[in-house]
Amino acid sequence: MRAMILAAGRGERMRPLTDHTPKPLLKVRGKPLIEWHIEAFARAGIRDLVINTAWLAEQFEAALGDGSRFGVRLHYSHEGERHGRALETGGGIATALDLLCAEGDEAFWAVSADIFIPEFVFDADKAAAFAASPRLAHLWFVPRQPRHPAGDFGIDAEGFATIDGDLQVYSNIGLYKRAFFDGVKPGEHQRIRFSLDRAIQARAVTAELYTGPWANVGTPEQLDELNAMG
Question: For position 107, what pLDDT does the model report?
Fold first, then answer.
């Protein structure tokens, strides 16, 4: 099974830091944010990772290379070069599906590069169970945050994601199948919420609550807070 790290965004709220450095390459506790994910996937035995790029794309390969120093193989989906701009989460993943499913796997991990999850485990057993299931996605939510008090989705008594009820925050961590992105064309600018709403309404998405350390690193102040805690 392969994995995708979403890294193409401009990082507007993180300016001026992102004027010259992509947000995923900003350092959290001594190393670039994206390296925390790469190392976690390597520990989980995932050897092929896809990184999408747009803003300051050339810096990713310069900093990360081919992944060999992490024990993985990095594959790049250069959205800016091929399509002129970042394609948002849904469009970015849909455009990279041939890379993510290159060995015939229909299931893969996807995580946003700009979240900090130092204790999250990309569990191989959960991934295998999901791949064998009829579900189109399995998501991790986190409790409502001070910066996101309204929440995004709920979880019903059977473990299915809902669009109502006791809403939690979508963590930007998930397992997906290729079919989840049916209806999104490669190169199309589309948020993942488009596919999520359809799949949730079809009861094809399960979810669980993650209560470990999690932070959406969106502003210089949030970055400073994380580094001060380290």
Answer: 97
